Amino acid sequence: MNILMTFIQKAIAQGVAILFGATGETLTEKSGNLNLGIPGIMYMGGIAGLMGAFFYENHTTDPIPLAGMLISLLCTLVAASIGGLIYSFLTITLRANQNVVGLALTTFGVGFGNFFGGSISKLAGGVGQISVATTAKAYRASFPVLSKIPVLGQLLFTYGFLTYLSVIIAVIVTFMLLRTRVGLNLRAVGESPATADAAGIHVSLYKYVATVCGAAIAGLGGLYYVMEYLGGTWSNNSFGDRGWLAIALVILATWNPVHAIWGSLVFGGLYILDIYIPGLSRAGKELVKMLPYVVTIIVLIITSKRSKLENQPPASLGNSYFREER
Asked: Residues 60-73: pLDDT tens digits?
């Protein structure tokens, strides 16, 4: 029982960053944009939040955890939004190839994070010496009373602020997409931008806002990993393939952020499953780590056979819109 509880808790902890990325990418893809720069944006968000907290703590005599949290949160949202804005400008305004721009943004974001992570390490006294423990306390604070409830307390109330925020944002985005006029317009843009344009919907504006907001949400995944998961430290290339798993989760969740909540738990569990299977060889562990992608491929095959439109990707996904061709 204890092993199972530990596994579920670790799966949730692993899945939160993936959930942030998947929710942000779902919002972006609903506008018709395919942002493969999500992994890089998560790096940008993570390092920006760490830098904000680091300089606050090192230039304040008595740093306040809540103030450090707000500063790091703001830095993350700004940095990730800039990444989304760069992608939007290149793909929407300049009509550059979305796949190329996204991959370039990922390369840039990873390099950006590793460069500044190394730079801050030197300022802090050496590689691996970065620590913003004061700010991390605010992110990791849980529910001391509720966490003492047998079983459910440990399972549901031992996480930090960003873990619960990831679920709240996923629910809000889903409600917006399915139950509001803004969501209806956004889905129309993703399905047929020419038709939406003819109906008076500002296609470019919807694409810009959805992509920038989606990037900001994905950036929170990087902030979560640095502040809540790692406790306010930085390690180059530590994100692994979580950004790519977030993009894969969009497919598994059939472009619905609420489905991504349980999907992130599945992906989080599969990500660490090799640790809990005894006797695996190195090759066996790598095969187990492939499971999230295998599951995604299976789901993609199954959903492609269904006729329900809500289970399909937006019809114009990955295609640039040329108004003069309407």
From this structure: 888 898 999 999 99
